[in-house]
Design goal:
Layout: H1 12-43, H2 78-95, H3 110-128, H4 131-137, H5 140-145, H6 147-153, H7 155-169, E1 173-179, E2 188-192, E3 201-205, H8 215-225, E4 227-228, E5 231-233, E6 236-238, E7 244-245, E8 247-249, E9 254-256, H9 265-273, H10 281-286, E10 289-301, E11 305-310, E12 319-326, E13 331-333, E14 336-340, E15 343-347, E16 356-363, E17 367-388, H11 408-417, E18 427-432, H12 444-447, H13 454-465, E19 469-476, E20 489-490, H14 509-512, H15 519-526, E21 534-536, H16 549-559, E22 560-562, H17 565-574, E23 600-601, H18 610-617, E24 626-630, E25 636-644, E26 648-663
Parallel strand pairs: 18-24, 23-25
Antiparallel strand pairs: 1-16, 2-3, 2-9, 4-8, 5-6, 7-11, 8-10, 10-17, 11-17, 12-16, 12-17, 13-17, 14-15, 14-17, 18-26, 19-26, 20-21, 21-22, 25-26
The structure holds 2-oxoglutaric acid and fe (ii) ion.
Protein name: Oxidoreductase
Domain Fe2OG dioxygenase: 291-389
């Protein structure tokens, strides 16, 4: 259901005119004020110590706006300050005729003071830690004082490194060994039979070469009963001894006395690869469990048994990994290597092959390989590992065994959140998942975030423990890579409680955000002209650039984005509001839907605008100002459509799973950085 244009007070033509006019005015004012601040800072920085942080008054529902205090100074530089102030007034009036009355003392003028305060908040830390200027003046002490500001400047880099480190140190595989000190009582018995043979064969392991009780014969009959093992490629089972040389028995053809749960193996894997089970008994009982399902018995024999590098084919959407158990039987070579994002783990089982049961578990998206077996027989049982949801799990929170508070990532993000200048107006962190999930499957919504793995769960848990609104959502791929504007919010902020709900999208993630409302949409719907906010990408290297106010406001025009404006434009388009023919405000960036959704095969697209098809088939938004911290690693098909060049063909769009964390504005963050 669309609202008709009649419900709107303004059109997109109005919005564009208003935004352009307002933004240019704002940029001119900011440019003049910035020059003023740089000059005053260089004159005597103590003058600026009187400035209040605008976050103390301009933000928050109930906090009333105080009148900004006049800037008063009778100390050193008082004379020059008066001169700089009258220059500010002249510049303002030159760029915006009539902005302040002639002969006004701008240092006592409320309108100008407000700007001075908010611009100091926005650029002050950078003016103060302008390295080039500091080097000129060899003002080293100040550098220490403003280290925090420098830290802030580098925040994207820092967090990204921290998350990457978390990602790479996260476990993707684990393994162990159970020694068979005394074979009596710990031997493993295998039974198997030929398809039409009722007489079952039996083998007791370990096979000790010196014993002559028929075990070696038993081993030979086991080998005889095996069929050549195939492997999956492109959805087909392929037999290719070049790639895999092994024998296999399907699970309906054999029985084993070995059960991994008897040795606590499953529990161990749950703790390491499924760190979603908390230490609390209550959650342990209610939460996620692993189920191991016997999949195959494999025998790799010397001198040439092997399995080249591959990824296992998941047998269901619930499968998260594989378990390999190596039964005691002597062999040489045959190392198992497991790789994940450039990291490798090696399981060398030959040395203890006759005296231990050895095992390894790894996530489904890990590449692994079995090196050539030089001699003997490597007998393994493979299991598929599934996540099992326990009753009550739906409501259970995610609480990793790892206490998120102890992670370095937690400390780092906490310190950023308690820094006033850091994302003062709030924002969104976007972190691409490091593991592949079937995030466009039927049960994606059930699985994520609960079955998220390793590093992803760590990142999720840290954000959640800090009280952020966290979700795992797909983002539609965008021009091969996933660009965001990467810029934190700066500038004026204002908040009221009106938060508009889009009638079409209901309680979607985007509209659910509690922290700021859309000024441009307010303008369209109600004609309300509140202050615009800008997302700032600010490439200046030296604060000297700010001294040229005529250049500076034009640069602002190029490097700033009006917060929420793009989204308001697509909103207006959806409601068929008139629009300028060559509008500046086209859609850009990534699309995020309000929830996970399954893959859709669509017949649409023929002679239709693909943007429109996307809007209908995969409704989504362009959230403003997502700060991307980690690059995309995996993608899944989100939907298909008909594309039409010379002839019709099937086109596909892909999406990536990302962790999105909404950062509240500073005024709503408590002492520990958590949401108040
Ligand atoms: O036997 C092993 O070590 C692993 C076998 C394997 O990778 C597989 O069956 O997919
Ligand atoms: Fe495998």
């Amino acid at each position: 259901m669309s609202r008709s244009p009649a419900h709107f007070k303004r059109t997109l033509v109005d919005l564009e005119d208003w935004v352009n006019k307002t933004a240019i005015e704002d940029f001119k004012i900011d440019a003049c004020v910035d020059r003023f601040l740089v000059r005053v800072y260089r004159l005597n920085r103590s003058i600026l110590d009187q400035l209040e942080s605008s976050s103390y008054y301009g933000f928050g529902r109930r906090a009333p706006k105080k009148h900004p205090k006049p800037l008063e100074w009778s100390g050193e530089g008082a004379e020059e300050l008066r001169e700089i102030a009258s220059e500010l007034r002249d510049n303002l009036n030159r760029l915006l005729p009539g902005y302040v009355e002639e002969n006004t003392d701008v240092l006592g003028n409320e309108k100008v003071l407000r700007k001075i305060n908010s611009r100091w908040e926005a650029v002050g830390s950078r003016v103060a830690c302008d390295r080039e200027y500091l080097q000129q003046t060899s003002d080293k002490d100040r550098l220490v004082e403003t280290g925090l500001a420098w830290f802030y400047l580098r925040f994207v880099e820092t967090i990204t490194v921290a998350i990457e480190r978390e990602t790479s140190s996260a476990l993707f595989t684990c393994g162990g060994s159970i020694p068979i000190a005394n074979p009596i009582g710990s031997e493993q018995v295998l039974h198997w039979g030929a398809e039409h043979d009722s007489t079952a064969q039996k083998l007791t392991l370990p096979v000790l070469s010196e014993n002559s009780d028929g075990s070696t014969h038993g081993l030979q009959t086991l080998l005889d009963a095996c069929q050549p093992a195939s492997f999956g490629r492109g959805g087909q089972d392929i037999l290719d001894p070049e790639y895999r040389r092994a024998g296999k028995l399907d699970p309906d053809r054999f029985l084993t006395s070995f059960h991994p749960a008897d040795f606590g193996i499953i529990e161990l894997i749950e703790q390491i690869l499924l760190p979603g089970i908390s230490g609390e008994t209550e959650n342990r009982l209610q939460f996620r469990k692993l189920k191991a399902e016997l999949y195959k018995l494999n025998v790799y024999s010397g001198p040439s048994g092997h399995f080249r590098k591959h990824v296992d084919t998941p047998r269901s959407e619930h499968q998260i990994g594989s378990l390999v158990v190596c039964l005691p039987c002597q062999f040489e070579g045959g190392n198992l290597t497991v790789q994940h994002h450039g990291q490798m783990a090696k399981f060398e089982w030959s040395r203890q092959s006759s005296s231990s049961i050895q095992w390894a578990a790894f996530y489904s998206d890990c590449e692994h390989e079995i090196e050539t077996i030089r001699a003997g027989h490597r007998i393994t049982l493979t299991y598929n590992l599934y996540v099992r949801e326990m009753p009550g799990a739906i409501l259970a929170p995610i609480r990793p065994v790892l206490d998120p508070h102890t992670l370095p990532l937690y400390g780092l993000i906490e310190s950023l959140l308690t820094t006033p200048g850091f994302m003062k107006d709030g924002g969104v962190f976007g972190v691409h998942c490091s593991h592949a999930y079937p995030h466009s499957s039927d049960i994606a919504g059930l699985q994520l975030p609960r079955s998220s793995k390793g590093a992803d769960l760590v990142v999720y848990a840290v954000f959640e423990a800090l009280g952020m609104d966290v979700s795992i959502l797909p983002v539609l791929e965008y021009d091969e890579d996933y660009e965001g504007n990467g810029a934190p919010y700066f500038g004026d902020s204002e908040q009221d409680s009106a938060s508009e709900q889009d009638s079409d999208s209901g309680r979607g993630w985007y509209y659910k955000r509690k922290y700021w409302r859309s000024v441009p949409k307010d303008y369209l719907a109600r004609g309300k002209e509140s202050s615009l906010r800008y997302s700032e990408v600010y490439p200046w290297k030296s604060s000297s650039a700010l001294l040229d106010e005529d250049q500076h406001w034009k640069r602002l025009l190029l490097t700033r984005e009006v917060v929420d404006v793009i989204e308001a434009f697509s909103f207006g388009e959806k409601h068929h509001l008139p629009k300028k023919p060559n509008s500046l405000y086209e859609e850009w960036g990534v699309r995020v839907p309000p929830h996970l959704r399954r893959y859709i095969g669509s017949e649409r697209g023929q002679e239709e605008d693909l943007k429109e098809v996307t809007n209908d088939v995969w409704p989504s938004y362009y959230p403003p100002g997502i700060t991307w911290l980690v690059e995309a690693k995996h993608k899944e098909m989100a939907f298909s459509h008909i594309s039409y060049d010379n002839q019709a063909s099937i086109g596909a769009r892909y999406s990536c799973a990302v962790i999105l964390a909404v950062i509240p504005p500073f005024s709503q963050r408590g002492q520990s950085g958590k949401m108040k």
